[in-house]
């Protein structure tokens, strides 16, 4: 849930990286933390096990000025990918504004990708959010490996709904398209937000606006 | 997605009034009101020593994580949590179904005092948030106000 604070002239958004275990969600945040201007970010907080598997979540706060006169704060979270931590994923998804689904492109991970995506849909539904309604993009990660499925197959498996979303071929370890996908979901989110503020301006009572994501490929 | 909650300058001043009064009475250092998703709604006190955004994210997680523990003993949730350190401590209490209040305090006060005054402060904060307007307050921005350049740049 975004919040507008007129006193500090701030708007906050929450973006969650979702996907199966070991698909590269934490690597995404690590790369962003390493490469973004330090003035625009806080500390990267990682609640992980001794073997570096995410136990609770990773968290990275970012600042930007993207709407005139307002500082926009983006809070990036990852969820733990392991199946047993579903309760934790539901907690992290609370008040989410945008989602980046990170799929592992390796053939042997396809079942886990589909399971995780279904799990995302179910967990969003528990908050009365439809996967077609929330700003989201898809990352096909680990494109540098050899045993990977072609993009059109991944599209068929994960992006085959009535409303298709933007998808990116990503190598999170080297940063390929990491920022592109973050920027894409942030823009979609802001445009949805602007539609809501337009409605707030003109209508006597706020209403929800159905979202039409752009269908585009990178 | 529901309408976006807006805090006007007056809303923030009202919240600051309640939180400032609470800090003074409880002799605590910092208090932060957050939603259960980890977003900061309001804050008051000495914010120079810590990153409030991170405190909020972790506190929301900590509060939520104990919910299941509470269920095991027949409670819906714990409505207050206390983390005791050697010199600095954190007290968290539930304001309503969507909001939590976090208080950071040191040796100059006691958890009892903080707990006592936080109850009425939480009630006042809850009442203020309930009256929060969600109609935008004339907040006007459209797609042309959003920067066209990439929001985040890879150095």
Task: Describe the 3D structure.
The complex is a heterodimer of chains A (218) and B (155). With 218 residues, chain A is of the alpha/beta class. Chain A has one domain: 3-Layer(aba) Sandwich (Rossmann fold). Helices cover 31% and strands 25% of the residues of chain A. Chain A contains five helices and eight strands. In chain A, strands 1, 2, 3, 4, 5, 6, 7 and 8 form an eight-stranded mixed beta sheet that branches. Chain B has 155 residues and is of the alpha+beta class. Chain B has a single domain (18-132), classed as Dynein light chain 2a, cytoplasmic (Beta-Lactamase, 2-Layer Sandwich). Chain B has helices spanning 9-26, 52-65, 67-72, 111-130; strands at 6-7, 30-35, 40-45, 80-83, 89-96, 99-105. A five-stranded antiparallel beta sheet of chain B has the order 3-2-6-5-4, with helices on both faces. In chain B, β2 and β3 (40-45) form a beta hairpin. The longest helix of chain B is centred in the C-terminal third of the chain and has 20 residues, at 111-130. Chain B is globular. Classes of the chains: A alpha/beta (218), B alpha+beta (155). The interface between A and B is large, with 68 and 48 residues.
């Amino acid at each position: 849930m975004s919040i507008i604070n007129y006193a500090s002239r701030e708007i906050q958004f929450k973006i969650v990286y979702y996907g199966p275990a070991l698909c590269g969600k934490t690597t995404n945040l690590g790369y962003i933390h390493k490469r973004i201007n330090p003035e625009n970010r806080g500390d990267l907080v990682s609640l992980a096990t001794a073997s570096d598997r995410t136990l609770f979540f990773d968290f990275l706060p970012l600042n930007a000025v993207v709407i005139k006169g307002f500082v926009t704060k983006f809070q990036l979270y990852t969820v733990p990918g392991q199946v047993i931590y579903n309760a934790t994923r539901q907690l992290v998804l609370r008040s989410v504004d945008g989602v980046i689904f990170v799929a592992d492109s390796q053939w042997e991970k396809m079942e886990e990708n589909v399971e995780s995506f279904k799990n995302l849909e179910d967990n969003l539904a528990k908050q009365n959010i439809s996967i077609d309604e929330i700003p989201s993009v898809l990352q096909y990660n680990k494109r540098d490996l050899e045993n990977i499925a072609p993009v059109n197959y991944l599209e068929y498996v994960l992006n085959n709904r009535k409303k298709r979303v933007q998808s990116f071929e990503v190598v999170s370890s080297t940063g390929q398209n990491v920022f592109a996908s973050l920027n894409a979901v942030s823009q979609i989110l802001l445009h949805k937000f602007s539609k809501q503020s337009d409605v707030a301006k003109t209508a006597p009572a706020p209403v929800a606006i159905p979202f039409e994501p752009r269908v585009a490929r990178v | 997605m529901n309408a976006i909650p807006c805090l006007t300058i007056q809303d923030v001043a009202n919240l600051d009034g309640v939180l400032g009064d609470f800090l003074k009475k409880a002799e605590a250092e910092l208090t932060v009101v957050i939603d259960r998703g980890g977003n900061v709604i309001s804050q008051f006190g000495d914010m120079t020593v810590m990153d409030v955004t991170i405190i909020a994210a972790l506190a929301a997680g900590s509060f939520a994580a104990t919910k299941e523990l509470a269920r095991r003993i027949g409670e819906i949730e714990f409505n207050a949590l206390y983390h005791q350190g050697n010199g600095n401590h954190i007290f968290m209490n539930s304001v309503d179904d969507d909001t939590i209040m976090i208080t950071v305090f040191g040796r100059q006060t006691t958890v009892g005092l903080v707990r006592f005054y936080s109850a009425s402060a939480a009630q006042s904060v809850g009442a203020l948030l309930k009256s929060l307007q969600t109609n935008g307050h004339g907040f006007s921005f459209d797609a042309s106000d959003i920067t066209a350049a990439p929001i985040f740049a890879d150095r």
